[in-house]
Protein backbone atom coordinates (compact mmCIF):
# COMPACT_ATOMS: atom_id res chain seq x y z
CA UNK A 1 0.00 0.00 0.00
CA UNK A 2 1.30 3.43 -0.87
CA UNK A 3 2.27 5.55 2.14
CA UNK A 4 -0.25 8.24 1.23
CA UNK A 5 -3.08 5.71 1.05
CA UNK A 6 -2.03 4.21 4.35
CA UNK A 7 -1.89 7.61 5.97
CA UNK A 8 -5.35 8.40 4.66
CA UNK A 9 -6.65 5.19 6.21
CA UNK A 10 -5.01 5.97 9.50
CA UNK A 11 -6.51 9.41 9.71
CA UNK A 12 -9.82 7.97 8.62
CA UNK A 13 -9.56 5.52 11.50
CA UNK A 14 -8.83 8.28 13.96
CA UNK A 15 -11.69 10.38 12.64
CA UNK A 16 -14.11 7.49 12.55
CA UNK A 17 -13.24 6.37 16.04
CA UNK A 18 -13.59 9.89 17.35
CA UNK A 19 -16.94 10.02 15.63
CA UNK A 20 -17.98 6.78 17.29
CA UNK A 21 -16.94 7.92 20.71
CA UNK A 22 -18.16 11.47 20.45
CA UNK A 23 -21.55 10.39 19.22
CA UNK A 24 -22.11 8.29 22.29
CA UNK A 25 -22.95 11.31 24.39
CA UNK A 26 -26.20 11.63 22.56
CA UNK A 27 -28.97 9.30 21.60
CA UNK A 28 -29.43 8.22 18.03
CA UNK A 29 -32.36 6.73 16.16
CA UNK A 30 -33.16 3.17 17.05
CA UNK A 31 -33.97 0.22 14.84
CA UNK A 32 -32.50 -3.18 14.21
CA UNK A 33 -33.63 -6.75 13.98
CA UNK A 34 -35.05 -6.93 17.48
CA UNK A 35 -37.45 -4.12 16.77
CA UNK A 36 -40.39 -4.49 19.11
CA UNK A 37 -43.01 -2.25 20.55
CA UNK A 38 -41.45 -0.21 23.32
CA UNK A 39 -44.49 -0.80 25.49
CA UNK A 40 -43.53 -4.48 25.86
CA UNK A 41 -40.82 -3.52 28.29
CA UNK A 42 -40.57 -1.44 31.43
CA UNK A 43 -39.03 1.94 30.90
CA UNK A 44 -35.27 1.88 30.90
CA UNK A 45 -33.57 3.96 33.58
CA UNK A 46 -31.75 7.10 32.62
CA UNK A 47 -28.05 6.55 32.93
CA UNK A 48 -26.81 8.21 36.11
CA UNK A 49 -25.01 11.50 35.83
CA UNK A 50 -22.11 10.39 38.01
CA UNK A 51 -19.82 8.15 36.00
CA UNK A 52 -17.69 6.18 38.45
CA UNK A 53 -15.47 4.30 36.05
CA UNK A 54 -15.05 3.45 32.39
CA UNK A 55 -12.99 1.04 30.35
CA UNK A 56 -12.48 -0.05 26.78
CA UNK A 57 -9.06 -1.47 26.03
CA UNK A 58 -7.01 -3.18 28.72
CA UNK A 59 -4.93 -1.05 31.04
CA UNK A 60 -5.17 2.25 29.16
CA UNK A 61 -5.73 4.31 32.27
CA UNK A 62 -3.08 2.35 34.17
CA UNK A 63 -0.38 2.42 31.52
CA UNK A 64 -0.91 5.80 29.89
CA UNK A 65 -2.33 8.15 32.50
CA UNK A 66 0.70 9.58 34.28
CA UNK A 67 2.30 6.15 34.88
CA UNK A 68 5.65 7.58 36.04
CA UNK A 69 4.10 9.84 38.63
CA UNK A 70 5.88 11.47 41.50
CA UNK A 71 2.91 13.02 43.30
CA UNK A 72 0.22 10.47 44.09
CA UNK A 73 -2.56 13.01 44.64
CA UNK A 74 -1.97 14.43 41.16
CA UNK A 75 -1.91 10.95 39.70
CA UNK A 76 -5.18 10.00 41.40
CA UNK A 77 -6.80 13.17 40.12
CA UNK A 78 -5.76 12.44 36.55
CA UNK A 79 -7.04 8.87 36.72
CA UNK A 80 -10.34 10.08 38.14
CA UNK A 81 -10.66 12.64 35.38
CA UNK A 82 -10.11 9.89 32.83
CA UNK A 83 -12.72 7.64 34.41
CA UNK A 84 -15.33 10.38 34.57
CA UNK A 85 -14.82 11.67 31.04
CA UNK A 86 -17.62 11.53 28.49
CA UNK A 87 -16.79 10.52 24.90
CA UNK A 88 -16.90 14.06 23.60
CA UNK A 89 -13.84 14.88 25.75
CA UNK A 90 -11.85 11.69 25.30
CA UNK A 91 -9.54 13.19 22.70
CA UNK A 92 -8.24 15.66 25.28
CA UNK A 93 -6.29 12.85 26.96
CA UNK A 94 -4.13 12.23 23.89
CA UNK A 95 -1.39 14.72 24.76
CA UNK A 96 -0.63 13.16 28.14
CA UNK A 97 -0.79 9.70 26.57
CA UNK A 98 1.81 10.82 24.00
CA UNK A 99 4.35 11.57 26.74
CA UNK A 100 3.99 8.06 28.17
CA UNK A 101 4.10 6.53 24.69
CA UNK A 102 7.47 8.19 24.14
CA UNK A 103 8.93 6.49 27.19
CA UNK A 104 7.48 3.09 26.28
CA UNK A 105 8.87 3.45 22.75
CA UNK A 106 12.34 2.97 24.18
CA UNK A 107 11.65 -0.35 25.91
CA UNK A 108 12.91 -2.45 23.00
CA UNK A 109 16.08 -0.36 22.79
CA UNK A 110 14.96 1.46 19.64
CA UNK A 111 13.37 4.90 19.63
CA UNK A 112 11.09 5.82 16.77
CA UNK A 113 9.81 2.37 15.82
CA UNK A 114 6.48 2.62 17.63
CA UNK A 115 3.54 2.29 15.22
CA UNK A 116 2.51 5.64 13.71
CA UNK A 117 5.54 7.45 15.16
CA UNK A 118 6.30 10.60 13.17
CA UNK A 119 9.33 12.44 14.49
CA UNK A 120 9.08 15.09 11.79
CA UNK A 121 5.52 16.01 12.57
CA UNK A 122 4.62 19.43 13.92
CA UNK A 123 7.10 20.78 16.44
CA UNK A 124 8.77 17.39 16.75
CA UNK A 125 7.79 17.03 20.41
CA UNK A 126 6.03 14.10 22.04
CA UNK A 127 2.51 15.27 21.30
CA UNK A 128 3.32 15.58 17.61
CA UNK A 129 5.51 12.51 17.20
CA UNK A 130 3.33 10.11 19.18
CA UNK A 131 0.04 11.93 18.75
CA UNK A 132 -1.59 9.72 16.13
CA UNK A 133 -1.37 6.54 18.18
CA UNK A 134 -2.22 8.52 21.32
CA UNK A 135 -5.38 9.75 19.63
CA UNK A 136 -6.44 6.24 18.65
CA UNK A 137 -5.85 4.94 22.18
CA UNK A 138 -7.63 7.92 23.73
CA UNK A 139 -10.72 6.75 21.88
CA UNK A 140 -10.86 3.92 24.36
CA UNK A 141 -13.04 1.23 22.85
CA UNK A 142 -12.43 -2.39 21.96
CA UNK A 143 -12.85 -2.82 18.20
CA UNK A 144 -14.54 -6.04 17.14
CA UNK A 145 -15.34 -7.21 13.61
CA UNK A 146 -18.66 -9.02 14.03
CA UNK A 147 -18.75 -10.10 10.40
CA UNK A 148 -15.99 -12.65 10.88
CA UNK A 149 -17.03 -16.18 11.73
CA UNK A 150 -13.71 -17.71 12.77
CA UNK A 151 -11.76 -16.10 15.59
CA UNK A 152 -8.52 -17.22 17.25
CA UNK A 153 -9.29 -16.75 20.96
CA UNK A 154 -5.75 -15.66 21.77
CA UNK A 155 -5.15 -13.28 18.87
CA UNK A 156 -8.09 -10.92 19.03
CA UNK A 157 -6.77 -8.11 21.13
CA UNK A 158 -5.95 -4.98 19.05
CA UNK A 159 -6.22 -7.10 15.88
CA UNK A 160 -8.41 -4.57 14.08
CA UNK A 161 -6.24 -1.60 15.07
CA UNK A 162 -2.93 -3.30 14.23
CA UNK A 163 -4.26 -4.44 10.85
CA UNK A 164 -5.07 -0.87 9.91
CA UNK A 165 -1.81 0.50 11.24
CA UNK A 166 0.30 -2.07 9.43
CA UNK A 167 -1.93 -2.28 6.36
CA UNK A 168 -2.17 -5.98 7.03
CA UNK A 169 -4.84 -8.60 7.46
CA UNK A 170 -6.38 -8.85 10.94
CA UNK A 171 -4.92 -11.76 12.91
CA UNK A 172 -8.39 -12.46 14.22
CA UNK A 173 -11.72 -10.77 14.92
CA UNK A 174 -10.59 -8.04 17.30
CA UNK A 175 -12.25 -7.25 20.61
CA UNK A 176 -10.85 -9.10 23.58
CA UNK A 177 -11.39 -12.58 25.02
CA UNK A 178 -10.38 -13.61 28.55
CA UNK A 179 -7.66 -15.72 26.93
CA UNK A 180 -6.02 -12.91 25.00
CA UNK A 181 -2.60 -11.89 26.37
CA UNK A 182 -3.69 -8.26 26.41
CA UNK A 183 -0.76 -6.93 28.43
CA UNK A 184 1.94 -8.49 26.26
CA UNK A 185 0.14 -7.31 23.11
CA UNK A 186 0.11 -3.83 24.63
CA UNK A 187 3.81 -3.97 25.46
CA UNK A 188 4.57 -5.15 21.93
CA UNK A 189 2.57 -2.35 20.35
CA UNK A 190 3.86 0.45 22.57
CA UNK A 191 7.51 -0.56 22.31
CA UNK A 192 7.39 -1.15 18.57
CA UNK A 193 8.12 -4.84 19.01
CA UNK A 194 5.16 -5.84 16.89
CA UNK A 195 6.68 -9.22 16.13
CA UNK A 196 6.33 -9.84 19.85
CA UNK A 197 8.40 -11.77 22.34
CA UNK A 198 11.05 -9.22 23.20
CA UNK A 199 9.04 -6.97 25.50
CA UNK A 200 6.94 -9.17 27.75
CA UNK A 201 6.05 -9.60 31.39
CA UNK A 202 6.57 -13.34 31.04
CA UNK A 203 3.01 -14.27 31.99
CA UNK A 204 1.13 -15.68 29.04
CA UNK A 205 -1.97 -17.17 30.65
CA UNK A 206 -4.14 -17.07 33.74
CA UNK A 207 -2.39 -18.91 36.55
CA UNK A 208 -5.66 -20.19 38.00
CA UNK A 209 -5.68 -23.10 35.60
CA UNK A 210 -8.22 -25.09 37.59
CA UNK A 211 -10.83 -22.42 37.00
CA UNK A 212 -9.56 -20.97 33.79
CA UNK A 213 -11.86 -19.11 31.46
CA UNK A 214 -13.17 -20.99 28.45
CA UNK A 215 -15.03 -19.60 25.51
CA UNK A 216 -17.29 -22.47 24.59
CA UNK A 217 -19.87 -22.44 27.37
CA UNK A 218 -21.79 -19.53 28.86
CA UNK A 219 -20.87 -17.68 31.10
CA UNK A 220 -17.35 -18.27 29.79
CA UNK A 221 -15.49 -17.48 33.04
CA UNK A 222 -14.38 -20.14 35.49
CA UNK A 223 -16.06 -20.86 38.80
CA UNK A 224 -14.90 -18.66 41.68
CA UNK A 225 -12.14 -19.79 43.99
CA UNK B 1 10.55 21.01 26.88
CA UNK B 2 9.98 17.42 27.92
CA UNK B 3 13.58 17.12 29.06
CA UNK B 4 13.06 20.15 31.25
CA UNK B 5 9.85 18.79 32.70
CA UNK B 6 11.45 15.45 33.48
CA UNK B 7 14.53 17.04 34.94
CA UNK B 8 12.44 19.22 37.21
CA UNK B 9 10.33 16.27 38.15
CA UNK B 10 13.47 14.46 39.17
CA UNK B 11 14.33 17.21 41.61
CA UNK B 12 11.18 16.85 43.63
CA UNK B 13 10.71 14.15 46.18
CA UNK B 14 10.14 10.89 44.38
CA UNK B 15 7.80 8.31 45.85
CA UNK B 16 7.51 4.76 44.60
CA UNK B 17 5.05 4.37 41.76
CA UNK B 18 1.94 2.52 42.77
CA UNK B 19 0.50 1.32 39.51
CA UNK B 20 -2.79 -0.49 39.27
CA UNK B 21 -4.17 -2.58 36.47
CA UNK B 22 -5.71 -3.65 34.06
CA UNK B 23 -8.34 -1.27 35.23
CA UNK B 24 -8.48 -2.71 38.72
CA UNK B 25 -8.76 0.10 41.27
CA UNK B 26 -7.65 2.88 38.98
CA UNK B 27 -8.59 6.19 40.54
CA UNK B 28 -10.08 6.78 43.99
CA UNK B 29 -13.53 7.76 42.74
CA UNK B 30 -14.00 4.43 41.00
CA UNK B 31 -12.99 2.42 44.03
CA UNK B 32 -15.35 4.43 46.27
CA UNK B 33 -13.87 2.69 49.30
CA UNK B 34 -12.04 -0.50 50.04
CA UNK B 35 -15.28 -1.85 51.41
CA UNK B 36 -17.13 -1.17 48.19
CA UNK B 37 -15.37 -2.00 44.96
CA UNK B 38 -18.64 -2.89 43.24
CA UNK B 39 -18.46 0.11 40.94
CA UNK B 40 -14.80 -0.34 40.07
CA UNK B 41 -14.36 -1.93 36.66
CA UNK B 42 -11.55 -4.46 36.52
CA UNK B 43 -11.88 -5.63 32.91
CA UNK B 44 -14.07 -5.55 29.81
CA UNK B 45 -14.20 -8.30 27.20
CA UNK B 46 -16.06 -8.50 23.89
CA UNK B 47 -15.98 -11.42 21.51
CA UNK B 48 -18.24 -13.28 19.14
CA UNK B 49 -19.47 -16.79 18.57
CA UNK B 50 -21.48 -17.98 15.59
CA UNK B 51 -24.54 -15.90 16.38
CA UNK B 52 -23.86 -13.71 19.38
CA UNK B 53 -21.70 -10.94 20.68
CA UNK B 54 -20.59 -11.80 24.20
CA UNK B 55 -19.92 -8.89 26.52
CA UNK B 56 -18.25 -9.24 29.92
CA UNK B 57 -17.92 -6.50 32.52
CA UNK B 58 -15.92 -7.47 35.59
CA UNK B 59 -15.96 -5.35 38.75
CA UNK B 60 -14.98 -5.74 42.35
CA UNK B 61 -11.38 -6.88 42.86
CA UNK B 62 -11.13 -9.50 45.58
CA UNK B 63 -14.77 -10.61 45.42
CA UNK B 64 -15.91 -13.45 47.63
CA UNK B 65 -18.88 -15.79 47.40
CA UNK B 66 -20.97 -13.27 49.29
CA UNK B 67 -19.89 -10.11 47.48
CA UNK B 68 -22.80 -8.37 45.78
CA UNK B 69 -23.35 -5.98 42.94
CA UNK B 70 -24.42 -2.61 44.24
CA UNK B 71 -28.12 -1.76 44.11
CA UNK B 72 -27.07 1.89 43.74
CA UNK B 73 -24.84 1.44 40.70
CA UNK B 74 -25.77 1.09 37.02
CA UNK B 75 -23.60 -1.19 34.91
CA UNK B 76 -23.57 -0.17 31.26
CA UNK B 77 -22.15 -1.55 28.01
CA UNK B 78 -21.87 0.89 25.11
CA UNK B 79 -21.66 -0.57 21.60
CA UNK B 80 -21.16 1.51 18.47
CA UNK B 81 -21.62 -0.26 15.13
CA UNK B 82 -19.89 1.20 12.09
CA UNK B 83 -19.73 0.05 8.48
CA UNK B 84 -16.03 0.57 8.22
CA UNK B 85 -13.32 2.83 9.40
CA UNK B 86 -14.71 5.93 7.73
CA UNK B 87 -18.27 5.61 9.03
CA UNK B 88 -19.01 8.60 11.25
CA UNK B 89 -22.69 7.69 11.79
CA UNK B 90 -22.59 4.80 14.26
CA UNK B 91 -25.47 2.52 15.14
CA UNK B 92 -25.38 3.09 18.89
CA UNK B 93 -26.63 0.57 21.43
CA UNK B 94 -26.44 0.25 25.19
CA UNK B 95 -27.10 -2.53 27.67
CA UNK B 96 -28.05 -1.00 31.01
CA UNK B 97 -28.16 -3.35 34.01
CA UNK B 98 -29.28 -2.67 37.57
CA UNK B 99 -29.68 -4.81 40.68
CA UNK B 100 -32.01 -4.69 43.63
CA UNK B 101 -30.95 -5.52 47.16
CA UNK B 102 -31.73 -9.22 46.63
CA UNK B 103 -29.49 -9.21 43.52
CA UNK B 104 -32.39 -9.56 41.09
CA UNK B 105 -31.07 -8.11 37.87
CA UNK B 106 -32.81 -6.02 35.24
CA UNK B 107 -31.12 -5.33 31.90
CA UNK B 108 -32.38 -3.20 29.05
CA UNK B 109 -30.97 -3.49 25.52
CA UNK B 110 -31.45 -0.25 23.68
CA UNK B 111 -30.80 0.73 20.07
CA UNK B 112 -30.40 4.44 20.45
CA UNK B 113 -33.04 5.39 23.01
CA UNK B 114 -35.43 2.59 22.05
CA UNK B 115 -35.62 -0.52 24.23
CA UNK B 116 -35.56 -3.60 22.02
CA UNK B 117 -35.10 -6.35 24.60
CA UNK B 118 -35.26 -6.79 28.37
CA UNK B 119 -34.15 -9.37 30.93
CA UNK B 120 -35.00 -9.64 34.60
CA UNK B 121 -34.60 -12.27 37.29
CA UNK B 122 -32.00 -14.17 39.26
CA UNK B 123 -28.97 -14.38 36.98
CA UNK B 124 -26.60 -15.98 39.49
CA UNK B 125 -26.81 -19.56 38.20
CA UNK B 126 -24.33 -20.50 35.50
CA UNK B 127 -27.15 -20.93 33.01
CA UNK B 128 -28.06 -17.28 33.49
CA UNK B 129 -31.44 -15.79 32.75
CA UNK B 130 -32.88 -15.05 29.32
CA UNK B 131 -35.23 -12.49 27.88
CA UNK B 132 -38.78 -13.48 27.00
CA UNK B 133 -37.87 -13.97 23.35
CA UNK B 134 -34.76 -15.92 24.38
CA UNK B 135 -32.44 -13.70 22.39
CA UNK B 136 -30.60 -11.97 25.22
CA UNK B 137 -29.00 -13.94 28.06
CA UNK B 138 -27.38 -12.58 31.23
CA UNK B 139 -25.24 -13.99 34.04
CA UNK B 140 -24.22 -12.02 37.12
CA UNK B 141 -22.19 -13.28 40.04
CA UNK B 142 -18.74 -14.12 41.39
CA UNK B 143 -16.35 -15.79 38.93
CA UNK B 144 -12.67 -16.45 38.66
CA UNK B 145 -10.82 -13.32 37.55
CA UNK B 146 -9.41 -14.31 34.15
CA UNK B 147 -7.05 -11.36 33.94
CA UNK B 148 -3.36 -12.17 34.07
CA UNK B 149 -0.55 -9.69 34.51
CA UNK B 150 2.78 -9.54 36.27
CA UNK B 151 2.03 -6.15 37.75
CA UNK B 152 5.05 -6.36 40.03
CA UNK B 153 7.21 -6.08 36.91
CA UNK B 154 5.23 -3.09 35.65
CA UNK B 155 5.66 -1.40 39.01
CA UNK B 156 9.38 -2.07 38.90
CA UNK B 157 9.68 -0.32 35.54
CA UNK B 158 7.46 2.66 36.30
CA UNK B 159 9.09 3.02 39.69
CA UNK B 160 12.54 2.94 38.12
CA UNK B 161 11.63 5.65 35.63
CA UNK B 162 10.02 7.79 38.33
CA UNK B 163 13.07 7.54 40.57
CA UNK B 164 15.58 8.13 37.80
CA UNK B 165 14.09 11.01 35.86
CA UNK B 166 17.20 13.14 36.25
CA UNK B 167 19.54 10.41 35.09
CA UNK B 168 17.34 9.49 32.13
CA UNK B 169 16.64 13.05 30.99
CA UNK B 170 19.93 13.48 29.07
CA UNK B 171 19.18 10.33 27.06
CA UNK B 172 15.81 11.52 25.78
CA UNK B 173 15.25 12.17 22.12
CA UNK B 174 13.53 15.49 21.34
CA UNK B 175 10.33 13.45 21.13
CA UNK B 176 10.76 12.12 24.67
CA UNK B 177 12.03 8.58 24.08
CA UNK B 178 14.82 7.37 26.39
CA UNK B 179 17.77 6.00 24.42
CA UNK B 180 18.46 3.27 26.93
CA UNK B 181 21.29 1.69 25.02
CA UNK B 182 22.97 5.02 24.24
CA UNK B 183 25.95 6.67 25.88
CA UNK B 184 25.27 7.93 29.36
CA UNK B 185 22.17 5.85 29.97
CA UNK B 186 21.98 4.66 33.56
CA UNK B 187 20.48 1.36 32.45
CA UNK B 188 20.31 -0.81 29.35
CA UNK B 189 17.06 -1.62 27.59
CA UNK B 190 17.69 -5.30 28.34
CA UNK B 191 17.89 -4.52 32.04
CA UNK B 192 14.60 -2.61 31.92
CA UNK B 193 12.95 -5.48 30.06
CA UNK B 194 14.31 -7.71 32.78
CA UNK B 195 12.56 -5.60 35.38
CA UNK B 196 9.33 -6.07 33.44
CA UNK B 197 9.61 -9.83 33.91
CA UNK B 198 10.60 -9.74 37.56
CA UNK B 199 8.89 -9.73 40.92
CA UNK B 200 9.15 -6.91 43.43
CA UNK B 201 12.22 -8.44 45.03
CA UNK B 202 13.95 -8.72 41.67
CA UNK B 203 13.55 -12.47 41.38
CA UNK B 204 12.34 -14.08 38.20
CA UNK B 205 10.18 -15.27 36.62
CA UNK B 206 7.33 -12.87 37.21
CA UNK B 207 3.98 -14.21 38.31
CA UNK B 208 0.30 -13.62 37.63
CA UNK B 209 -0.47 -11.20 40.42
CA UNK B 210 -4.24 -11.54 39.89
CA UNK B 211 -4.43 -15.22 40.69
CA UNK B 212 -5.65 -16.57 44.00
CA UNK B 213 -3.35 -15.30 46.78
CA UNK B 214 -1.83 -12.84 44.31
CA UNK B 215 -0.38 -9.53 45.39
CA UNK B 216 -1.91 -7.20 42.79
CA UNK B 217 -3.95 -5.26 45.32
CA UNK B 218 -1.27 -5.02 47.98
CA UNK B 219 -1.01 -1.22 47.54
CA UNK B 220 -4.69 -1.04 48.47
CA UNK B 221 -4.00 -2.90 51.65
CA UNK B 222 -5.46 -6.13 50.30
CA UNK B 223 -3.19 -9.12 50.76
CA UNK B 224 -3.76 -12.59 49.34
CA UNK B 225 -6.39 -11.93 46.69
CA UNK B 226 -9.33 -14.25 46.34
CA UNK B 227 -8.66 -14.22 42.61
CA UNK B 228 -12.35 -13.57 42.01
CA UNK B 229 -14.39 -10.73 40.57
CA UNK B 230 -18.06 -9.98 40.13
CA UNK B 231 -18.83 -10.79 36.50
CA UNK B 232 -21.69 -9.43 34.42
CA UNK B 233 -21.95 -11.49 31.24
CA UNK B 234 -24.38 -10.58 28.46
CA UNK B 235 -24.93 -12.46 25.20
CA UNK B 236 -26.80 -10.60 22.48
CA UNK B 237 -27.41 -11.53 18.85
CA UNK B 238 -24.87 -9.87 16.57
CA UNK B 239 -27.66 -8.51 14.47
CA UNK B 240 -29.05 -6.53 17.39
CA UNK B 241 -25.81 -4.59 17.70
CA UNK B 242 -24.59 -4.39 14.11
CA UNK B 243 -27.88 -3.21 12.58
CA UNK B 244 -28.65 -6.57 10.96
CA UNK B 245 -25.12 -6.77 9.62
CA UNK B 246 -25.08 -3.32 8.09
CA UNK B 247 -22.64 -1.99 10.73
CA UNK B 248 -20.28 -4.93 11.39
CA UNK B 249 -17.40 -3.21 13.17
CA UNK B 250 -18.32 -2.77 16.83
CA UNK B 251 -16.69 -0.32 19.24
CA UNK B 252 -17.28 -1.56 22.80
CA UNK B 253 -16.70 0.12 26.14
CA UNK B 254 -18.33 -0.07 29.54
CA UNK B 255 -19.03 2.28 32.42
CA UNK B 256 -20.48 2.35 35.92
CA UNK B 257 -22.75 5.10 37.18
CA UNK B 258 -24.62 6.42 40.13
Characterize the structure shown.
The complex is a heterodimer of chains A (225) and B (258). Chain A is 36% helix and 4% strand. By secondary structure, chain A is mainly α. The longest helix of chain A has 21 residues. By secondary structure, chain B is α+β, with helices and mostly antiparallel strands. Chain B folds into 2 domains: 78 residues, no CATH class; 143 residues, no CATH class. The interface between A and B is large, with 125 and 143 residues.
Structural class of chain B: alpha+beta
Report helical residue fraction of chain A. 25-40%
Distance between the termini of chain A: 50 Å
Shape of chain B: globular
Hey, which two chains have the biggest interface? Answer: A-B, 125 and 143 residues
- State the end-to-end CA separation of chain B: 40 Å
Quick overview of this protein structure:
Chain A has 225 residues and is mainly α.
Secondary structure layout plus pairing:
The complex is a heterodimer of chains A (225) and B (258).
Chain A: H1 3-23, E1 51-55, H2 60-64, H3 72-84, H4 94-105, H5 126-129, H6 131-138, E2 142-145, H7 159-166, H8 182-191
Helix pairs in contact in A: 4-6
Chain B: H1 2-11, H2 28-31, E1 41-48, E2 52-59, E3 74-82, E4 91-99, E5 105-111, E6 114-121, E7 129-130, E8 137-144, H3 151-163, H4 165-168, H5 189-196, E9 228-237, H6 238-241, E10 249-257
Antiparallel strand pairs in B: 1-2, 2-9, 3-4, 3-10, 4-5, 5-6, 7-8, 8-9
Q: What characteristics describe this protein?
A:
heterodimer; A: 225 residues; mainly alpha; B: 258 residues; 5-stranded antiparallel β-sheet; 30% strand; globular; disordered N terminus
Amino acid sequence: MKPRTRLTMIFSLAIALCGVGCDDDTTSPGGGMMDMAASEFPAAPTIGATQLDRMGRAGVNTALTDPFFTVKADHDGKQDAYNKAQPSTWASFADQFAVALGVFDGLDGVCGNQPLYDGGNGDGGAASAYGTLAGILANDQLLLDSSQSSCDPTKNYLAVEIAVITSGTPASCGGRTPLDPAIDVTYAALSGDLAGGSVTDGVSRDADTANQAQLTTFPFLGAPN
Amino acid sequence: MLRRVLALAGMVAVCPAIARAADHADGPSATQSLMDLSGDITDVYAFTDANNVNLILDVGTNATATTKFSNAVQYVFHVNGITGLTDAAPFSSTVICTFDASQKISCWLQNGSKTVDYVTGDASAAAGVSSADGKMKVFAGPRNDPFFFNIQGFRKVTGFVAQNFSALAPTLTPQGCPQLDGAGSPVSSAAVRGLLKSQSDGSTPGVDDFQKNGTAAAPLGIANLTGNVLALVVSVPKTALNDNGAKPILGVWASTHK
